[in-house]
Amino acid sequence: MFATSKLEAGDLIFAERPIIVIPQAIPFPDIEYPEGITQAEMLKIQLTEFEKLLEMCVGRMLPQDKKAFFELCDSHTEDGSGPILGRVRTNGFGIEFEAKDGEPHSATFIAA
Questions:
Q1: How does 63-93 read in b/e, with b if 16+ C-beta sit within 10 Å?
Q2: Radius of gyration for the alpha carbons in the chain, expressed in angstroms and rounded
Q3: How confident is the model over 34-87, as pLDDT tens digits?
Q4: Cys staple from 90: which of 5, 15, 75, 83, with CB 3.0 to 4.6 Å?
Q5: 23 phi and psi, to 5 degrees?
Q6: What are phi and psi of 6, to 5 degrees?
């Protein structure tokens, strides 16, 4: 993202509601991993499990929102991210709000 005009502190940048908000860290501290697997294999398991959770979120979207979400670019097609997480990683922005878990989150917006 880049600005097309000078911005001052406090200027409104987004006035849209995000289409999806997710934790920035993959939330799977209690996965039981097979013995002897590599870090890369652990990451693949985490990404697969996270994608399953995201599928539930996207499955609850209105049809027009789901269509718009899947029209977003996905530049993470070769790193183990699924099609949903890839779009969030490509298009998401870090946001701050008072989440119950206190962790940083990422929001993905669809430009109106």
A1: eeeeeebeebebebeeebbbebbbbbbebbe
A2: 16
A3: 899 999 998 888 888 889 989 999 999 999 999 999 999 999 999 989 999 999
A4: 75
A5: -65, 145
A6: -65, 135
